[in-house]
């Protein structure tokens, strides 16, 4: 019989740690990784389940070289369990901002939702949750960026196969200038 703790550890290593190490070994910029991870996590807690991957799929080509696609998607994957736990706080924040009535979270309300008797209430609660997320998203993004940037600076320095050096950056810049001049 397998030990559930070791099975979970193996799963976490294969699905989160190993992809992160691969990203770090490829030598991406810490600022880009911090921004991409923050963006992926922020989009990953969007209060409508099943939409987050599509949001990331839209954000990645729009931002182009400013984001690291693998980091965005990995952070989105990591945020999935947290997404469910933040739906109610986003809902309550949106209700407070809009001044609307609180959507009841009771078994009777669930019965009404499942039988289709509370369709306008459900739509209104979705709008409230979206308003709450829209208000919180810039703060989530900024806070995660500030926290993750020093972490990625250390991790990139430790795990990157091609560490960045001032001489290399200067040489690359000179090469770009020579190409532009030609």
What would you say about this model in short?
Helices cover 80% and strands 0% of the residues. With 182 residues, the chain is an all-alpha fold.
Outline the structure in words.
This protein has 182 residues and is mainly alpha-helical. The chain has a domain at 4-85 and 137-181. The protein has helices at residues 4-25, 30-44, 52-63, 69-98, 107-115, 119-159, 166-181. Helix 1 (4-25) packs across helix 4 and helix 3 packs across helix 4 (69-98). The longest helix has 41 residues, at 119-159. It is elongated and about 60 Å long. InterPro entries: DUF2062. Residues 20-158 form the DUF2062 domain.
Count of DSSP E strands?
0
Shape: elongated
Poorly predicted ranges: 165-175
Mean pLDDT: 83
How large is the radius of gyration? 21 Å
Explain the layout of strands and helices.
Elements: H1 4-25, H2 30-44, H3 52-63, H4 69-98, H5 107-115, H6 119-159, H7 166-181
Keywords:
7 helices; 182 residues; 80% helix; 0% strand
């Amino acid at each position: 019989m397998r030990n559930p703790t070791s099975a979970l550890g193996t799963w976490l290593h294969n699905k989160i740690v190993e992809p992160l190490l691969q990203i770090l070994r490829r030598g991406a910029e810490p600022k880009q990784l911090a921004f991409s991870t923050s963006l992926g996590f922020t989009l990953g807690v969007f209060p409508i389940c099943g939409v987050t991957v599509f949001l990331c799929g839209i954000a990645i080509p729009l931002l182009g070289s400013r984001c690291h696609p693998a980091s965005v998607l990995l952070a989105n994957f990591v945020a999935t369990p947290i997404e469910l736990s933040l739906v109610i706080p986003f809902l309550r924040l949106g209700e407070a901002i809009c001044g609307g009535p609180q959507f009841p979270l009771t078994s009777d309300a669930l019965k009404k939702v499942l039988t289709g008797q509370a369709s306008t209430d459900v739509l209104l609660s979705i709008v409230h949750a979206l308003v709450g997320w829209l208000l919180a998203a810039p703060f989530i993004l900024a806070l995660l960026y500030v926290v993750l940037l020093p972490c990625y600076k250390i991790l990139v320095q430790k795990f990157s196969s091609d560490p960045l050096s001032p001489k290399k950056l200067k040489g690359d810049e000179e090469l770009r200038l020579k190409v532009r001049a030609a």
